[in-house]
Amino acid sequence: MTLEGGLINEEQVEVLLSDLLERYGYDFTGYSRASIKRRIVRLYTLDRALSFSEFRYRINHDEAYFRRFVEQITVNVTEMFRDPDFFRRLREEVLPRLGTYPFIRIWLAGCSTGEEAYSIAILLKELNLLHKSLIYATDINPTVLERGEQGMFSLGYMRQYSENYILSGGTKDFSSYYTANYSLAKFDDELRRKLIFSTHNLVSDHSFNEFQLIMCRNVLIYFDRELQQKVLQLFDDSLEELGYLALGTKETISYAGFNNKYKRLGSEKIWRKLG
């Protein structure tokens, strides 16, 4: 095999994906090839691998480098209260309805470093529902989950997060939810105690509970159609009747084969499962 223009070709991408599946059980074969190839080439260039063989050997035999590889090829872009109108709909319509349940279970799939998980915890606290809630925040990437568990984010992001929070209907002083620790904002233990961070592979792992709300925003866009349908079926299997499914702005359930079982809430990408 030869490198084309010093970069990695499609055949070599398939070799690496096969290695990940056979050696580590990580199945990226349903991911968009263009997207995943772009990230592999970026890492290959960034780390100045001498050859594809050396690059492949490090991934297969160096655990630390394997973790770096997974971190680089998975998408970890997130922020607190991203898309404030979406969080306003959760605050005003979805979560108050869930408040009638004796206990609330929420699954955030593909949670990355956990900013959305803390956003949901803040909403639940302000609605006086946090005490009877659990938020399961899962991702394929253990490194980003560790950062989420710590509950510490760059202090430099707090101004933007505070603006998002206010636009989503928040009325408190956002800084009351964290303490400044040098260059980091450390979020309160009261919020962190209600978050369970755990690895979960949407491609190969099964349903692990029944939930009243499942959020998976801007993850499916990186999967091919077949894998999208498989993951949506997993969500349907994991969602209670009358529960809510929330996706990203460019994602839909219209091709899932069960969209007649769901009713969309207004303009947001939130669907309620019919009884």
Structure write-up:
This protein has 275 residues and is of the alpha/beta class. The protein has two domains: 10-73, no CATH class; 84-273, Rossmann fold. It is 41% helix and 19% strand. The chain has ten helices and ten strands. It has helices spanning 10-24, 33-46, 52-61, 63-73, 84-98, 115-126, 142-150, 158-167, 189-192, 225-238, and strands spanning 104-109, 133-139, 152-154, 178-181, 184-187, 195-199, 211-216, 239-247, 262-264, 270-273. A hairpin with a 5-residue loop joins strand 9 and strand 10. It is globular. The termini are far apart.
Total tally of structural domains: 2
Instruction: Please give the number of β-strands.
Output: 10
Return the average pLDDT rounded to an integer: 91
Report the CATH superfamily of the largest domain. Vaccinia Virus protein VP39
* Spatial shape: globular
Residue ranges: pLDDT <50 for 5 or more in a row?
Answer: 1-5
Strand content: 15-25%
Could you name the CATH topology of the largest domain?
A: Rossmann fold
Annotation field: number of helices: 10
What is the highest CATH level, the class of the largest domain? Alpha Beta
H/E element string?
Answer: HHHHHEHEHEHEEHEEHEEE
Query: What is the name of the CATH architecture of the largest domain?
Result: 3-Layer(aba) Sandwich
**Termini, distance in Å?**
55 Å
Biggest sheet architecture = 7 strands, mixed
| Cα Rg | 20 Å
Q: Look at the helices and sheets and give the structural class.
A: alpha/beta
**What is the spatial order of strands in the main beta sheet?**
6-2-1-7-8-10-9
Helix residue percentage: 40-55%
